[in-house]
Amino acid sequence: MAPSARAGDGTDPYVPPMPPLADRVGWLRLLRAFRRNTLDAFPRACLHEPAVSLPLPGGGRVVLLCTPDAARHVLVAGAGDFARLPAARRVLGPIAGRGLVLAEGEAWRRQRKVLAPAFTPRTVPLMAGHTARATEGAMHRLAASGGAPVDLHSEMQRLSLDIAAAAMFSLETGPFEARIRGMISGYLGGLGRPRVSDFLLPPGWPTPASPARALFRRRWLRLIRDVVAVRRAQGRGGAPRDLFDLLSAAHADGHDGLLADEVGTMIVAGHETTASTLFWAALLLARAPAVQTALAQEAAPLDLGPEGAAESLPRLPLARAVVQETLRLYPPAYMIARRARRATEVCGTAVPAGATVMIPTWVMHRNPRWWVRPEAFDPQRFLRPGEEPDRFVYLPFGAGPQVCIGAQLALAEATLVLARLSRDFVLTLDDDRPVMPVATVTVRPDHAPRFRLRPRAPVPREPLSLLPEMG
After folding, report:
1. What is the CATH number of the domain that holds 401?
2. Under a CB-based contact definition with an 8 Å cutoff, are residues 171 and 230 in contact?
3. Residue 11 lies in a domain
């Protein structure tokens, strides 16, 4: 897994550069990596050992569980024995507050039940229309580049925020865009980076970052309440037209503070996850022109506009597979962490009470025990009948009761955007400098490369079997 950048030339799949797994990991390196780049700390032993245990100062312990059976136990069968990390509350609390992403126990069950109607399959046509409308605006902006170098990372962030605003509020981001993007990017790149003190100090104790995070929290809530006020001023028609209508109906008991937390969480999750997936997918496609062409062929006869997007979604299997493969290589939930409430055993591994348990999704997605050529970009692995991955080997959005509630909507959004992008443009990179993933709260690039977008000539509809076999 040493860095490499072999391009997909139509015969060989593209192998994106990745940080090498660590041969030796001590507790200090592990904690430092949480602030700098968590991917630097995953031990190579996770590829062949079912569990890797690391002692911490003061008698604590980190246990990395590296098999699907262990993941199934922690996330489903024995989920009651594990809680969210106090460090997660410190890091995500300023944005999520009491929202679903940090709720537990009865509060989590109540909030999940309240939010569930907003994320059922019946909302997909509504969200597909909003996605297609925002995507059309982005395609016009990209076309205006005239072939000049484009910061597609920034463009995908803007597009994903437009989608989130439209889907959540039926609003154009307008005056809120710069404020929302600035606050999210600033937080995730600064105060949102975990500190060693977040892990070592007991729950409830302030950390050196606590005052600045509290100030951010006040500013963030003011911004979200401003957005909510503008949307409420529009009123509501008959049938729900966006997620805000559905969430407002669900929170009709007047819990405005909780509504603000849920809305803020959805904006951040929808913006950051979708933007990251779209950027990494574009980067992979720029190195795999044969896949780009196949995507364009698939999308060519379809109506990807606001009226036809929902109907076209099931007819985009390759676009969906590209998104799934991108999520395998760059999973939003690159690690799932829990704290053991009591001493227990997971698949033969002893887990002491209070231990930090980690499921290293990043490594499981690259383990040759479960994937053919795991280092390669091969969307067809999600198209070949009978080769579907084990549910607990492929964990881009987590699993079990606390799986990401918006996962299917995020997958649909990214599928539609990639289909339209590939149909309209040929993507190439402006230079060959490797782009390395850096993970703290999310997986981001170490720098924003420049892309060149050339208008794509109409392509004939061809069988998808023309896509070269990569497995």
Report:
1. 1.10.630.10
2. yes
3. no
**Residue 235 burial by Cβ neighbours in a 10 Å radius (0-12, 13-18, 19+):** exposed
CA-derived radius of gyration, the chain: 22
**269 burial type by CB count under 10 A (0-12 exposed, 13-18 middle, 19+ buried):** buried
Q: What is the pLDDT of residues 369-387, one digit of tens each?
A: 999 999 999 999 999 888 7
Q: Is 27 exposed, middle or buried (0-12, 13-18, 19+ CB in 10 A)?
A: middle
* Residue 144, phi then psi, degrees to nearest 5: -70, -10
Structural domain contains residue 12: no
The reply to whether 3 falls in a domain is: no
Give the tens place of pLDDT for each residue, 73-106.
999 999 999 998 888 889 889 988 888 888 888 8
Domain extent, residue 318, equals: 27-466
Residue 336, in any domain of the structure: yes
Number of domains in the chain: 1
Please state, in angstroms and rounded to a whole number, the distance separating the CA atoms of residues 296 and 464: 11
**Residue 130 to residues 241, 391, 410, 411, Cα–Cα distance (Å):** 10, 30, 13, 14
On whether the CB atoms of residues 284 and 330 are closer than 8 A, the answer is: no
Mean pLDDT by 10 residues, the chain (471 residues): 43 87 79 78 92 83 94 94 89 86 81 77 84 93 92 92 77 72 84 83 89 94 86 68 70 65 79 90 96 96 94 96 97 92 94 94 95 95 86 92 85 96 96 90 90 88 51 40
Q: Dihedrals φ, ψ of 389, to 5°?
A: -70, 155
Q: Name the β-bridge partners of 346.
A: 349
Q: Quick one: CA dihedral 283, 288, 294, 300, positive or negative?
A: positive
